[in-house]
Structure formats: C-alpha cells, structure tokens
Amino acid sequence: MTILGNEIYLLRFKERDQVEVFDVITYRLQRCLTVPNFRGLTDMTSCEYFLCLYISDDVVECVHRLGLEGSATQWPVYDIPRGCTVNAGHNLLVTCGELRKIKEFSPHGDLLRDVILPDEVVYTRGRRHN
Questions:
Q1: Is residue 63 in some structural domain?
Q2: Which of 8, 10, 24, 49 could serve as 90's disulfide partner, Cβ 3.0–4.6 Å?
Q3: What are the DSSP calls for 44-83, one per residue?
Q4: Number of domains comprising the chain
Q5: Which range marks the domain in which residue 23 is found?
Q6: What's the DSSP call for residue 70?
Q7: Beta-carbon neighbour count of residue 102 at 10 Å?
Q8: Per-residue pLDDT of the chain (130 residues; tens, 9 = 90+)
Q9: For residue 80, which of 40, 112, 120 has the smallest C-alpha distance?
Q10: 122 within some domain
Q11: 52 falls within a domain
Q12: Residue 64 belongs to a domain with what CATH number?
C-alpha cells in the first residue's frame, strides 16, 4: 500500500486490475489499474513528482512503473528486488538482498549506481521461497 495525493493504492494478487485505488477520506474504490506481466510483489512506493507508482517484482526480477492514468513500463533489476523507495532526487532506490546492494535507478529505469552494503548491515527481509 502507498498513498499519493488524495488516493490510497493497494496492490492485490490477481490477473487484472491488481492496483485498487481508493479515496483517502471515504475509502471508496475509485478505479483499478492493471500491471502487465506482474508476477510477484515485494514492495510498492509512489513518487509525487512524477505521479507514478513503482512495484518491485521478485519473480520477474524487475521494477514495474505504473502511471496514475494506467501507462506501464518495466525494467530488469538483475537481482531479486526487495524494498523500494523514492529519494529526494526523485530516483528509485531498490534493495537487493541476494547481492547485498542498493541500486539507484532514474525514474525511467536507467541504473545510476550500485551501493554495496557492508557486512554489518543486517538484512531483515526473508529470501524468496521457490
């Protein structure tokens, strides 16, 4: 779940209309958005600047970018993505537990940098189970 503006975005595991959009005050369903090629969810975040959602997918090993009007793109992470958040520069940060990295992507999926996490950093999210 994430909030953007006056709306709550809730992701559900189903074939179509995976993102349900609710009014933040009344909690009434406003509309549904479909994420093409969606297979697994590890996290979701939103970006107020670019008015979009980012969804990390641990099965396809990618990030899905979903525009609020329904446009969708995706790009590979080349690792199992876990958590995701947007930084002050409006770039997407994705934690990757298998490689112990944080990957920073531009809003359109260009890899800007990898930050290797030191051994002292404890990774609290579990591994994907096959």
A1: yes
A2: 49
A3: EEEETTTTEEEEEETTTTEEEEEETTS-EEEEE-SS-EEE
A4: 1
A5: 2-116
A6: S
A7: 17
A8: 999 999 999 998 887 778 999 999 999 999 999 999 889 888 999 999 999 999 999 999 999 999 988 899 999 999 999 999 999 999 999 999 777 899 999 999 999 999 998 877 765 454 443 4
A9: 40
A10: no
A11: yes
A12: 2.120.10.30
